[in-house]
Amino acid sequence: MTAVETGLYLALVTATLIAMTLGLMIVFQAYRGYRRNQSQRMLYLAAGLGFVTIAPFALSLGVALLSPVLPDASFVRTSVLPLVSRLLEITGLGLILYSLYSSRLRGSV
Length: 109
Hints:
By secondary structure, this protein is mainly alpha-helical. 87% of the residues lie in helices and 0% in strands. It contains three helices and no strands. It is elongated. The mean pLDDT is 89.
Protein backbone atom coordinates (compact mmCIF):
# COMPACT_ATOMS: atom_id res chain seq x y z
CA MET A 1 0.00 0.00 0.00
CA THR A 2 1.36 3.39 -0.93
CA ALA A 3 1.48 6.38 1.38
CA VAL A 4 -1.46 8.00 -0.43
CA GLU A 5 -3.59 4.86 -0.10
CA THR A 6 -2.70 4.58 3.58
CA GLY A 7 -3.63 8.20 4.16
CA LEU A 8 -6.94 7.80 2.36
CA TYR A 9 -7.73 4.65 4.32
CA LEU A 10 -6.97 6.38 7.62
CA ALA A 11 -9.15 9.33 6.55
CA LEU A 12 -11.97 6.91 5.75
CA VAL A 13 -11.66 5.15 9.12
CA THR A 14 -11.54 8.52 10.91
CA ALA A 15 -14.62 9.80 9.09
CA THR A 16 -16.46 6.55 9.88
CA LEU A 17 -15.61 6.80 13.56
CA ILE A 18 -16.71 10.45 13.68
CA ALA A 19 -20.00 9.56 11.97
CA MET A 20 -20.57 6.70 14.40
CA THR A 21 -19.84 8.96 17.36
CA LEU A 22 -22.27 11.62 16.15
CA GLY A 23 -24.89 8.93 15.53
CA LEU A 24 -24.40 7.55 19.03
CA MET A 25 -24.84 11.01 20.50
CA ILE A 26 -28.10 11.52 18.60
CA VAL A 27 -29.40 8.07 19.54
CA PHE A 28 -28.47 8.68 23.18
CA GLN A 29 -30.42 11.96 23.21
CA ALA A 30 -33.47 10.26 21.69
CA TYR A 31 -33.19 7.48 24.28
CA ARG A 32 -33.00 10.08 27.06
CA GLY A 33 -36.18 11.60 25.66
CA TYR A 34 -37.80 8.18 25.86
CA ARG A 35 -36.68 7.71 29.47
CA ARG A 36 -37.77 11.21 30.48
CA ASN A 37 -41.21 11.11 28.87
CA GLN A 38 -41.88 7.36 28.77
CA SER A 39 -42.81 7.81 25.11
CA GLN A 40 -42.76 4.67 22.99
CA ARG A 41 -42.48 6.89 19.92
CA MET A 42 -39.14 8.23 21.17
CA LEU A 43 -37.92 4.67 21.69
CA TYR A 44 -38.80 3.77 18.10
CA LEU A 45 -37.12 6.96 16.94
CA ALA A 46 -33.95 6.12 18.88
CA ALA A 47 -33.90 2.57 17.52
CA GLY A 48 -34.51 3.79 13.97
CA LEU A 49 -31.74 6.36 14.20
CA GLY A 50 -29.44 3.66 15.54
CA PHE A 51 -30.19 1.42 12.58
CA VAL A 52 -29.69 4.27 10.11
CA THR A 53 -26.60 5.92 11.59
CA ILE A 54 -24.69 3.37 13.65
CA ALA A 55 -25.43 -0.13 12.40
CA PRO A 56 -24.13 0.21 8.79
CA PHE A 57 -20.92 1.88 9.96
CA ALA A 58 -20.38 -0.73 12.67
CA LEU A 59 -21.03 -3.49 10.14
CA SER A 60 -18.50 -1.98 7.73
CA LEU A 61 -15.87 -1.73 10.44
CA GLY A 62 -16.58 -5.29 11.55
CA VAL A 63 -16.19 -6.64 8.02
CA ALA A 64 -13.00 -4.62 7.55
CA LEU A 65 -11.55 -6.05 10.74
CA LEU A 66 -12.64 -9.61 9.94
CA SER A 67 -11.74 -9.58 6.25
CA PRO A 68 -8.33 -11.24 6.82
CA VAL A 69 -10.04 -14.32 8.29
CA LEU A 70 -13.09 -14.42 6.00
CA PRO A 71 -12.82 -17.12 3.32
CA ASP A 72 -14.20 -14.96 0.48
CA ALA A 73 -13.71 -11.41 1.75
CA SER A 74 -14.07 -9.72 -1.63
CA PHE A 75 -17.51 -11.29 -2.17
CA VAL A 76 -18.58 -10.24 1.31
CA ARG A 77 -17.36 -6.67 0.77
CA THR A 78 -18.89 -6.25 -2.69
CA SER A 79 -22.17 -8.17 -2.38
CA VAL A 80 -23.18 -9.10 1.14
CA LEU A 81 -22.10 -5.93 2.97
CA PRO A 82 -24.00 -3.46 0.74
CA LEU A 83 -27.15 -5.61 0.88
CA VAL A 84 -27.10 -5.98 4.66
CA SER A 85 -26.29 -2.27 5.08
CA ARG A 86 -29.29 -1.28 2.95
CA LEU A 87 -31.55 -3.69 4.86
CA LEU A 88 -30.43 -2.13 8.15
CA GLU A 89 -31.09 1.35 6.78
CA ILE A 90 -34.55 0.31 5.50
CA THR A 91 -35.35 -1.13 8.93
CA GLY A 92 -34.23 2.09 10.60
CA LEU A 93 -36.23 4.27 8.26
CA GLY A 94 -39.27 2.08 8.88
CA LEU A 95 -38.86 2.51 12.63
CA ILE A 96 -38.51 6.28 12.22
CA LEU A 97 -41.66 6.40 10.11
CA TYR A 98 -43.48 4.28 12.67
CA SER A 99 -42.40 6.65 15.43
CA LEU A 100 -43.78 9.60 13.47
CA TYR A 101 -47.10 8.01 12.48
CA SER A 102 -47.78 5.50 15.28
CA SER A 103 -50.35 7.72 17.04
CA ARG A 104 -52.26 8.16 13.77
CA LEU A 105 -52.20 4.42 13.14
CA ARG A 106 -53.84 3.78 16.49
CA GLY A 107 -56.57 6.33 15.87
CA SER A 108 -55.42 9.03 18.29
CA VAL A 109 -54.10 12.40 17.21
